Amino acid sequence: MSDAAPARPAPAAYEEPVPSQERLDAVRAAEHPGCFLCSPANPDGLKLRFRVRADGSVVALFSCREVYQSYPETLHGGITSALLDAAMTNALFSIGIVAVTAELEVRFVAPVVLGRGAAVVGAIEKTSSHPLYYVRSELQQDRKVVARAKARFLVRGSV
Tell me: the pLDDT tens digits for 59-101? Predict the structure, then answer.
């Protein structure tokens, strides 16, 4: 008989969740049915349609209309921040995570010009620290980054 402690099973390997369009659509519909930014059902909303890309990020197109103006010919910074936050939220939806913004840092790189389209992209940086998730996003116009954000999200109901 040996005095050695019984062998412990090896911890399960962490598997990165795989983003999917079906999961994003289902979670958004269930958890954000009236969202101003991404719900197709909100009559006053922006109705952003986020798509999962091959690299796992999400993207939506946005029309920078005059009604969203702050300074002349410039998109309001609050709208910019909301777009960036929505992209990160939808990136989390794509892996089945429902979380709220705990901390948001926005960097305005250049003015967002009204009357032109823009693309907002969100991506997950770190998922291994559940219930805390690290996410980033950027707003692009004319193929240039005009704003970027990074954030920490907490799973809803975890605090």
Answer: 999 999 999 999 999 999 999 999 999 999 999 999 999 999 9
Pairing of strands 58-63, 51-52: antiparallel
Domain at 21-155, CATH class = alpha beta
What pairs with residue 101 in β-bridges? 153
Interval 10-24: pLDDT, tens: 555 557 789 999 999
- Which residues fall within 8 angstroms of residue 85, CB to CB, at 6 or more apart? 101, 104, 137, 149, 151
As given in the structure block, the two tokens for residue 118 are 């823009």
Q: Which residue has the tokens 């913004």?
A: 101
Q: How many CA atoms lie within 13 A of 76 on its CB side?
A: 9
Output the CA torsion sign for 104, 35, 126, 61.
negative
- For the ranges 7-16, 95-104, 125-134, the one whose mean pLDDT is highest: 95-104
**What are the residue boundaries of the structural domains of the chain, listed by start?**
21-155
Quote the pLDDT of residue 127.
Answer: 83
Q: Where are the beta strands (DSSP E) in 13-158?
A: 51-52, 58-63, 99-108, 117-126, 132-141, 144-155
